[in-house]
C-alpha cells in the first residue's frame, strides 16, 4: 500500500521530488475539498487551504505540511483532537526577503549618493526575516534600530534578562531595543 498525498499544485518543485511508494494527487488549492482528501494520508498545502473539521473530519489524513510561515489556516485544536500532526515552514522566505530589502535600500542609497554608514535602518520585528535583515545591515555598516514588542515583553519577564541579552549579543543576534531608545535617537538627530 502506498502513501497517498494530496498536494497543492502551486507548490513549486513538488512534482519532481516524490519518492517511490508515494501516490501524489496534485490539485489546485480551490479543488482541495473534503471529498478530495477523504482517502489521503497527508496534505501538502499553502495558506489558502483551510484545514479544519469541515475539510478533515472522517478523512484518513494524519499529517499536514504547509509551505508557509504562518499556520492560522490550520485549526490546531481540531488537529490535536483528531490526532493529526501538522508542520509549517517558519522563516522559509526570510533570506530572500532580507536580500530583497537590502537590494532596495542599496538602490536608493546609490541614487542618493549614500554610503552604508550614512543609513539608519529601523526594523520592527526581529524574528526570522527581521533578524536576517539586521545581520546583513550590520555587516554592511548601517546603523540599526530594532523594536519587537512581543520579544521586549518576553525579555522583561525573563528572570535573568541581562545575561539573555548578552547571549544574543555574543551570537551576533539582534536585540529588541525599547521604543524609548528609538525616540531618543529621533530627538538627537
Total number of beta strands: 7
- How far the N terminus sits from the C terminus, by CA atoms, comes to 68 Å
**Rounded radius of gyration (Å):** 22 Å
Estimate the strand proportion. Answer: 15-25%
Q: Give the helices and strands as they follow along the chain.
A: EEHEHEHEHEHEHHH
Order of neighbouring strands in the sheet with most strands: 2-1-3-4-5
Keyphrases for this structure?
189 residues; 8 helices; disordered C terminus; alpha/beta; five-stranded parallel β-sheet; single chain
Walk me through what this model shows:
- With 189 residues, the protein is α/β, with parallel strands linked by helices.
- Helices cover 40% and strands 17% of the residues.
- The strands form 2 sheets. The protein has a 5-stranded parallel sheet, covered by helices on one side.
SSE order and pairing:
Layout lengths: L2 E6 L13 E6 L6 H4 L4 E4 L7 H4 L6 E4 L9 H7 L2 E3 L6 H19 L7 E5 L3 H13 L2 E5 L1 H9 L3 H10 L8 H10 L1
Parallel strand pairs: 1-2, 1-3, 3-4, 4-5, 6-7
Short description:
The protein has 189 residues and is an alpha/beta fold. The chain contains 8 helices and 7 strands.
